Amino acid sequence: MKRFCRSILYLMAMSALSACNRMPATASDETFNYREIYLPYSFMCDEKELNLNNVERDWGIWGHNLDVVIPERHVNSIYASVGGTVYKKQFCFSSPQLLLYISKYIDENFGNKKPQRFAILPNDNDLVCQCGRCREAGCTPTDASPAVFALLEKLAKLYPKHTFFTSYYLTTKQLPKAPLPDNVGVLVSAMDYRLSPVETPEEQQFAKLLSDWHEMCRHVYVWDYINNFDDYYTPFPVYTVMQRRLQLYARSGVKGVFLNGSGHDYSTYNRINTYVLAELLKSPDVNWREVLMETCRRLFPVAGETLALFRIDQEEYVAANGRALPIYDGVAAALKTYLPKESFLNFYAKMERLSALTTGSEQRDVTRVLRAVTMTRLELMRLDGITPEEVGKAHALLARLDSLDDISTVKMGDKTWKMRIYSESYWTVDSYIEDYRKMLDLCSEQKGNLLLHQPLTALTRLDEDYNDLSILTDGMAGLPNNYHCGHLLSSASPSLNIALPAGHRYHRVRVGLTANVQFRIALPLRVTLTCGGREVGSVVPKPVVAPSGRTEVEFNVPAWAMGGTLVLHVYRNPEVRTMALDEIQAY
C-alpha cells in the first residue's frame, strides 16, 4: 500500500539568506547558508556547536501551521469552498480576511524590523478552494498555486524585510507565470526524487525543476528526507545517498537545505547522524567515512568502532545493490535495500557484549541503541518464521524492549525526548509489544494446523506490493497497529479469492482479519467459503472495538466438502480501498 500520509514536519523548511542565480562551480563551506537537520540531537546540542538552523527558532510560521494565525473567533470565509460546501481542513487563499489574520499575527508577534521567514502553505491535503475569487485567480480543482502566489505577493509588499515561502508540493506544484518579488521563496519537496545511490531519471528532472524555480524567485530551498518514517529504529544509512544529493543541490545553486528526520522522537544513530550530516551540509565533498569514524570513537569510546563499521557495511550494501531507499516501509523492504542481514546479526551480538563493558553516558547511549535495534531483531525473527521452540527467545527479546523505562525519557538541560514512538504515525513501542505477544500466543497454538507452511493459490490478481501468500500460512498473526508486519493487503474487487490445497479433510477453516482506521484498512463486508462453486458458508466479520484490531471468521466444513478444493472469497468494502488478511488456518 502506497503511503497516503505525508509528514507534517517535512515542510518545516529551510533557508533565509538570498540565493543568487549564479551556479557555484564546486561546493564550499558556505554552500548552504541555511542548514537544518530535524533530529533529536540537533535540538539538544548548543546551537553554536554544529552551527545548524532550527525551525523552532528561525521561522515565524513554518510547515502546515497556518492555523496559528487564526483567532478563536473568526469568519468561515477564510476556508476553502468546493461546490458551495465549506471545508475547514483547507484555506481560501483569495480571502481578504485570511490576509488580515496573517498581517495581524505578524504585526503582534514580529513587527517589520527584524527579518523573519514565514511559510504560507496549504494544509497537507488535496483540497483546493473553488470560490469565485479563487477561480478568477486561475485556480483549478487540483491547483491552488495562483491564489497562493497572489497572497505571497501582497504579504511581500506589506513586509519588505520578511521573506515569505510557498511550497512545491501537492496543490502548489505549478511555477508562477512571472518572477516573484525578491522576498518570496519556495520550499521544493524532494519527495518525488527517490533516495537512490545511483543516477536515476528523477535526478535530472529534479535538477531541471530547481533550475526552473531559480528563474522565478531568489530563494530556492530544498527539504529532503533522512529517515524511514515507518521505522525510526532500524538504522537507516543515508550518507552515500545524501552526499550525492547535496552535491547536486550545490551545483544547482540551492542555498538552504532542511533534512527531515524523526524530529523530537528517538531514531537510532540520530546523534551520530547529526554530526556527520552537519559536516556534509557544510561541505558536500567531505570524506564522510573519516568523519563517521572520528565521531563514533569520540562519542562511544568502547562501542564506537562497532557502530561505525556496521554503518559502513550498510552504506556499501546500499551502493552495491543500487536500489532506492524506502522512506515508508518495514524491515522486509529494508532487507532488500539497506539492511545486510548477517552483518546486522553480528552487529547486534557485538552490541550485546559491549553494553556490559560501557559505563556512564556511553552505557546509557549504547543501551538505547540496543533497545531500538531489538525491534529490528524481533522483526527478523518474525520474517524468518518463529517455531514453537523459538517462542521463549522472542519473549526474552520483548522483555528487553519493554524493561528500559529508565532510559525511555532522555533529558538534556530543559529539553526532553522519548523512546516510546517509533514512527511518524505515532506507532508506539507498547502497542508493538502487545501485538507481538498476542502473535506469539498464536504461534504456540499451531498443533494440528493442516495449512501451516502450505502453499495457497490466488485466483484473483494480488496487489503489486503484497503478493506473497506465504505470510498467510506462516503460523503468525499480523500486528494490527503496523500494517507492514504480517499482513496481506488487498484492493481486489469485488473479492479476493484464494484456493486452499486440495486433498485434505479440513473440518474447520479460520481466517484472521485486521482493521486499521488510521490507514483506511477496513474489514471485508463478508467472507464466503465455497467448494466446487457451491457455498459452504458466509460470515460477516465481527467489528473490532479499537481503531485498530484483529478479528477472525470461522467455518465448519460439512462432510460433502471434505477433500474437495475449498475457495475463500473475501469481499472488500467498496467504500474503503484496502482490506488486510494475516493468517488462514485449517484443522
Tell me what the structure shows:
- This protein is of the alpha/beta class and 587 residues long.
- Among the domains are: 61-109 and 111-161, no CATH class; 337-441, no CATH class; 449-586, Galactose-binding domain-like (Jelly Rolls, Sandwich).
- It is 33% helix and 18% strand.
- It contains 16 helices and 19 strands.
- The strands form five sheets. A six-stranded parallel sheet has the order 1-8-7-6-5-4. It has a five-stranded antiparallel sheet with strand order 11-13-18-15-16, with no helix packed on it. The chain has a four-stranded antiparallel sheet with strand order 12-19-14-17, with no helix packed on it.
- The protein is globular and about 85 Å long.
- The two termini are 31 Å apart.
- Residues 1-29 have low confidence and may be disordered.
Characterize this entry briefly.
The protein is an alpha/beta fold and 587 residues long.
Q: Give the amount of beta strand, in percent.
A: 15-25%
- Helical residues, percent: 25-40%
Class from helix and strand fractions:
alpha/beta
Number-wise, the strands total: 19
- So how many helices? 16
List the helices and strands and how they pair.
Elements (H helix, E strand, L loop, with lengths): L33 E5 L1 H5 L2 H4 L4 H4 L20 E4 L2 E7 L4 H14 L7 E3 L12 H6 L7 H14 L4 E6 L15 E6 L11 H14 L4 E7 L13 H13 L4 E5 L9 H13 L5 H12 L4 H18 L9 H7 L3 H15 L4 H25 L6 H12 L6 E4 L2 E4 L10 H15 L13 E2 L29 E3 L4 E5 L8 E9 L9 E6 L2 E6 L8 E9 L9 E6 L7 E8 L1
Parallel strand pairs: 1-8, 4-5, 5-6, 6-7, 7-8
Antiparallel strand pairs: 2-3, 9-10, 11-13, 12-19, 13-18, 14-17, 14-19, 15-16, 15-18
